[in-house]
Specification:
Blueprint lengths: L10 H12 L1 H7 L4 H16 L15 H24 L5 H8 L2 H13 L5 H22 L3 H27 L5 H23 L8 H25 L5 H7 L2 H14 L5 H19 L2 H6 L23
Helix pairs in contact: 1-10, 1-12, 2-10, 3-9, 3-10, 4-8, 4-9, 5-8, 5-12, 5-13, 6-8, 7-8, 7-13
Protein name: DMT family transporter
Family: Belongs to the EamA transporter family.
Pfam families: EamA
C-alpha cells in the first residue's frame, strides 16, 4: 500500500521532534520535585491531553479480556519503573551518560524478541548490538573515575532501558488486539496510578509545589511527549519506521549540547568514545531492518508513546 504524501518536507516535523525529545532530561534536571512526582504528573497531564482525540474509542474498553487487562497492568508497571529509574539516574550521573545508555533500548528489545517471539537477528544486528554494548561499557567505565555516584546513575539508566524494553515487548504482543490509542491511554493511566500508590506508600508529598514545578510537570507532558513522540508517530504515515528510530539517536547529542549550555556539563573523552560506539552500533542495527520494512507494513507503536490516530510502530521514549 502506497504511503500518503506530505505537503511539507518531512525533515521539518522530524527536526521539531528531535529537538523536543532532547528537552526531556533537561526538564527533569530543572525540577526539584521527587522523580516519582514528576513522573506521576507527566502521565496525568499526558492522559488529559490525549482524551479529546479519541473519546469515541473509550467504548471499546468493555471488549478487553481479563488476560489483556493483566498485560496492560504489567505494561503500566514497567513503564512506571522505567521513568522512576531513568529520571532518578539524572540525579547521579551526567545527562550525556544517562541518555547514551538509555538509547540501548532497541538492543534489549532485540534480545527479548529473540527469546519471547523467536525473532532471529541478522549478523549485522548482532554486530551492532555488540558495538553498542561496548560503547555503554566505555561510558560506565569513564564515569567510575568521575564520582562514586556517577556509575550508580549509569546503572539506573541501564535498568531503566531494560524496563522500557520489557514494556515494548508487551506492546508487541497486545497491540494486535487493542487499538493503539486506547492501549496508550490505558497504560499511561495505569502508570499514573502506579506512581500515585508509590508516592502514598513512601509518604512523598504530592501537592503544595511552587508554580515552577507545575510548569515543569506540564512541559514534560507537552514537549517531549506531544511535540516529540506524537510527532514521530504521525510521521510514520509518510516515512519508514527506521527513519524515526534513527532520529531518536539525536537525543543524547541534543541533550548533551543543552546540558553544556545550561548546566555547564562537559562531555568527557570516555563519554565521547562510548557515545560514538553506541550510536554506530545502533545505526548498524537499525540499517539492517530497512530491507524488511520496504516489503512489510510498519508495526504497532510501543506503549511509551501516545498516538491517537496512527497505528504504526515508533521509537523509544525518554
Amino acid at each position: 500500500m502506497k504511503s500518503p504524501s506530505l505537503s511539507i518536507s518531512p525533515m521539518i516535523p522530524l527536526l521539531v521532534g528531535m529537538i523536543a525529545i532532547s528537552f526531556a532530561p533537561i526538564l527533569v534536571r530543572y525540577s526539584d520535585a521527587p522523580v516519582s512526582v514528576q513522573g506521576m504528573y507527566r502521565m496525568l497531564f499526558t492522559v488529559i491531553l490525549m482524551l479529546p482525540f479519541g473519546v469515541n474509542q473509550l467504548r471499546s474498553v468493555s471488549a478487553i479480556t481479563k488476560k489483556d487487562w493483566l498485560l496492560l497492568a504489567a505494561a503500566g508497571i514497567f513503564l512506571a519503573l522505567h521513568f522512576l529509574l531513568w529520571m532518578a539516574s539524572l540525579n547521579y550521573t551526567s545527562i550525556a551518560s544517562s541518555t547514551i545508555i538509555l538509547s540501548l533500548e532497541p538492543v534489549f528489545v532485540m534480545v527479548g524478541a529473540y527469546f519471547v517471539f523467536r525473532d532471529r537477528p541478522t549478523k549485522i544486528m548482532v554486530t551492532g548490538m555488540a558495538i553498542a554494548l561496548i560503547g555503554a561499557f566505555f561510558v560506565g567505565s569513564g564515569d567510575i573515575g568521575i564520582t562514586r555516584t556517577a556509575f550508580n546513575g549509569d546503572m539506573l539508566s541501564f535498568l531503566g532501558a531494560l524496563a522500557v524494553a520489557v514494556n515494548m515487548l508487551i506492546a508487541k504482543r497486545i497491540l494486535t488486539r487493542i487499538p493503539s490509542y486506547l492501549y496508550s491511554l490505558i497504560v499511561f493511566a495505569i502508570t499514573f496510578v502506579c506512581f500515585l500508590l508509590y508516592n502514598i506508600a513512601v509518604g512523598i508529598q504530592m501537592t503544595q509545589y511552587p508554580l515552577k514545578e507545575w510548569i515543569v510537570f506540564l512541559l514534560l507532558a507537552i514537549i517531549p511527549t506531544v511535540f516529540g513522540h506524537m510527532i514521530f508517530n504521525w510521521l510514520l504515515q509518510y516515512v519508514q519506521a527506521t527513519t524515526i528510530s534513527m532520529s531518536v539517536l539525536a537525543e543524547p547529542i541534543g541533550s548533551s549540547i543543552l546540558a553544556m549550555m545550561l548546566f555547564h556539563e562537559m562531555v568527557t573523552g570516555f563519554q565521547l568514545l562510548g557515545g560514538a560506539c553506541v550510536i554506530v552500533g545502533l545505526l548498524l542495527y537499525l540499517r539492517s531492518e530497512q530491507p524488511a520494512e520496504k516489503s512489510a507494513p510498519a508495526a504497532e507503536p510501543p506503549i511509551t508513546q501516545p498516538i491517537p490516530v496512527i497505528q504504526e510502530e515508533s521509537s523509544p521514549v525518554a
